[in-house]
């Protein structure tokens, strides 16, 4: 049965908890969480990214997270919490659900880059 994007987002948001800036900071600083920017390179070139975030376009996420992939990034360790964000939170929700399905037990959705930056998360880049 076909599903709409909204149905997919609702399912993802039911699996991946949303966190605010304070909790995202705590996860990164106290639990060594991996912060992941899922936006594409053109978006990041325009705005920069949150300080310390790994940049993995949504299309490459599964390849970077899978230890059996030749594109694996060792920063993706299921023992580490992962905090994902994108432009508005939609890609982050879907990516978070995918990571959960891949065996990452602690995945959180920070939402969008600009709201996080406006709320005081430090940025780097342009």
UniProtKB/TrEMBL annotation:
It comes from Paracoccus salipaludis. InterPro entries: Rhodanese-like_dom (IPR001763), Rhodanese-like_dom_sf (IPR036873). CDD domains: Polysulfide_ST (cd01447). This is Rhodanese. GO terms for molecular function: thiosulfate-cyanide sulfurtransferase activity. Transmembrane segments: none annotated. Residues 29-125 form the Rhodanese domain. PANTHER family: THIOSULFATE SULFURTRANSFERASE RDL2, MITOCHONDRIAL-RELATED (PTHR44086), THIOSULFATE SULFURTRANSFERASE_RHODANESE-LIKE DOMAIN-CONTAINING PROTEIN 3 (PTHR44086:SF10). It holds the Pfam family Rhodanese. PROSITE patterns: RHODANESE_3 (PS50206).
